[in-house]
Design brief:
Length: 249
């Protein structure tokens, strides 16, 4: 079972229940308010990775390499991946993986960097894939996704995230590779599941079709903020209970 985290408090709360915590580049959208993950920087991932590592004691922590930090060459990928691992203390990194990434994955793994891959809907490639849409509707694209997963596994990835594909395709990908598949919007045919934690907790009005809201954090925050504002305005907070009083000596 996997969830995302971007800060120490969240990591400490979910740590006991997760096998893996992903510091995803989704942080750009759910924390920083960006319209996509493309604008996320390496420095942002390191900062949030450091925070999560302070809160996680048991789960395997994986940090995303952001767009533009690994595509140039295996050498560039190693420079940035090693920096992430050194500066955060995380146990692995994740990259979005086409067949083009196999050489990079192999290069990283041979040099001691565990790699988790990501196939199917790849958010960093939204500008060439036509946006945030489920993938694999045509046989050609479905076959490419399977090929990408196989290439990632053969290159040394220890797991692969499968995002935004049909149940049938998820089953084919899972059968095609010897490593665990972790689904997000890919049915229960994958070996494991991952969700973006703020989505799962109901922080936003809109979430993707595949997200089940296990909480209503948005309402909790709005209600609490409203009550606090009222208490301050009518001067009922801070009351005696929350006020320091010093006795004279």
């Amino acid at each position: 079972m996997c969830l995302t985290a971007y800060d120490a408090p969240t990591a400490s709360l979910i740590d006991e229940h997760c096998d893996l915590i992903l510091v995803g580049d989704s942080v750009g959208m759910v924390v920083h308010g960006l319209s996509s993950t493309v604008g996320v920087t390496l420095e942002m991932m390191i900062l949030h990775g450091q925070a999560v590592m302070r809160g996680a004691q048991h789960a395997l922590v994986v940090v995303d390499l952001p767009f533009g930090s690994y595509e140039d060459s295996p050498e560039t990928a190693f420079k940035n991946a090693s920096r992430v691992m050194i500066e955060t203390g995380c146990q692995a990194i994740k990259i979005e993986s086409g067949t083009y990434a196999a050489e990079t994955i192999r290069y990283l793994v041979e040099r001691g960097i565990p790699v988790m891959s990501h196939v199917g809907l790849r958010p960093q490639s939204m500008n060439v894939l036509g946006g945030f849409r489920a993938r694999g509707r045509s046989k050609k694209v479905a076959d490419e996704i399977i090929e990408n997963a196989i290439a990632a596994a053969e290159a040394g990835s220890f797991a692969v995230v499968v995002e935004g594909v049909s149940e049938v395709l998820a089953k084919k990908v899972t059968k095609a590779v010897p490593i665990p598949t972790i689904g997000i919007g890919a049915s229960n045919e994958c070996d494991g599941q991952i969700l973006v934690t703020p989505d799962m907790l109901g922080l936003f009005d809109w979430t993707p079709k595949f997200v089940k809201k296990y909480g209503d954090l948005k309402s909790v925050i709005e209600t609490s903020a409203k009550q606090y504002a009222q208490d301050v305005k009518n001067r009922s907070f801070p009351s005696e209970e929350f006020t320091y009083r010093f006795t004279k000596k």
